[in-house]
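Let us practice reading a record.
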Amino acid sequence: MISLHRISVSFFITLISLTSPGADHYRLPAGAGEAGTGYSCIMKNGFWSSFHNQALLADNQSFTFGVNYQDRFGISELGTRTAGVIISSGKTSLGLIYSHFGYADYRRNMTGLACGLKLSEKLAAGVQVDYFAEMVPGEYEDVHLVTGEAGIVFHATENTLIGVHLFNPVPGSLTKNSMPATLRIGAGTNLNNLLFAGAETEMSSGNPIILRMGFEYEAAKKIWLRSGFSTENNSFSFGIGCLAKFIKIDLAFSTHERLGITSSASLIFKIH
């Protein structure tokens, strides 16, 4: 017998897909700090940003570990749990990320291995290989996909960075996968020592263009306030972060014009 609970969760998964035309559901976003700025982050240095644009890995100069949980609309079956680690070695840094979405009867797992390299004082590049596994019940077949992504970061000025990121660059007609190719281009600047502002655009095959913008303000020593907006579902976001010794804590909340509030929480541990 099929339970009403299972039907309701499946309905919500379908509804999210229908109401998020530009979203890549195989690559669910991670990082509460990034969520607080509306995920305008492919040009902003940071732990989770490095997995949005692997070129940013090159700016991480220590061993760092992080965990993130995203609670979508208060439904535990739609939660996403993510863990990542960055290992630095001179001008090169390696990253490993794992993400789990769903529940016992429907789940997606993603594993990525990344590398970022400084090519010059102003230019860095990075690549990542991704493996996706989607498990479904009954007579439906499980899905297993392998793809890649790459990005660059350019220091236009001392305070301004430009980021470009490409996900799943090989056309689906050649790889026979269902994921869209996605291009993100963005720029961000430190307006002063306390305020960062960034904006980016995302173009995904078969989907409308998404615009994002976000701000981060250091309101007090080691305390940051964030806000952002995304044209995807007209989503507003805000968040807060603080650093206590070697642990950084981030919280964020974002709106959905139909489904409600998504909350995110991250812990980042930096070990020198």
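A brief commentary: The chain has one domain: 31-271.
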